[in-house]
Amino acid sequence: RKPVSLPRLQEMRDRGEKITMLTAYDATFAAVADAAGVECILIGDSLGMVCQGLSSTAGVTLETMVYHTESVVRGLRRVQGTAWVIGDLPFGSYHESKEQAMRSAAQLLHAGAHMIKLEGGGWTADTVRFLVERGVPVCAHLGLTPQTVHSLGGYRVQGRDEAAARTLRTHSLELQDAGATMLVLEMVPAALSAEITVALPTCHTIGIGAGKGTAGQVLVMHDMLGINLGKNPKFVRNFMDGAASVRDAMAAYVAAVKDGSFPDDQLHAW
Length: 270
Ligand code: KIV
Ligand code: NA
Hints:
3-methyl-2-oxobutanoate binds at residues 45-46, 88, 117. GO terms for molecular function: 3-methyl-2-oxobutanoate hydroxymethyltransferase activity. This protein has one domain (6-268): TIM Barrel. The mean pLDDT is 96. The radius of gyration is 17 Å and the shape is globular. Helices cover 41% and strands 14% of the residues. It has helices at 6-14, 27-35, 47-50, 62-78, 98-110, 124-133, 149-152, 162-178, 190-199, 221-224, 246-258, and strands spanning 19-23, 40-43, 84-88, 115-119, 138-143, 182-186, 204-208, 216-219. Strands 1-2-3-4-5-6-7-8 form an eight-stranded parallel beta barrel, surrounded by eight helices. With 270 residues, it is an alpha/beta fold. Bound molecules: 3-methyl-2-oxobutanoic acid and sodium ion.
């Protein structure tokens, strides 16, 4: 297999093949996800919750993101993995200035990430342009942005009313214009995320709880393996059901995204 690159992702997009993404935080799971055919591996700051036991992602530091990115990248190198590696910029590491964002992004790229992800719209467009001009591929993230869960008032669907939907559309277009080549849409109504996807031919939408109309899908690994005690968000499917191994579960996820059987529209109508 050839390494996944931005041109390859654009080719997939152009021929209508869905892009698959999973989070991973360590060497072994990253290698397994790669072997299962997952194209994009996100070292998400969700590691704050699933690895560190924090109550939100706001407490994750850049140092921690660098540590986990290095672990994932070593795991992929060991198996000659081909996945595209995206590192999350944590809360506070890109908010002060474009220069601060560039310094933080450089740390994740030094750790081996191919692309960085940052949350929010509007004020982030200038930062995205600054990074992209300097050779940093950027994935944006709109809708439910967990780093600001407290100002959003909880983990809830975003872009429901017409004013919020308009803002989401505007921010999406601005981010593509600034050079973002991926955009995570989290907990956004299916019709809205499908519409945004059509409007963004060079910025690939990756949905989580956003219906099946996006260019790709992402899930938190622990969620799709069904190993979280307590309540999972309702858009999650447990791919360990009927799977003989973690690798099989991840391969089932890839197959389901590719053939359109995940996500289930019923659960994503919001
Ligand atoms: O941190 C994370 O895992 C994420 C995904 C849910 C998109 O940002
Ligand atoms: Na994240």
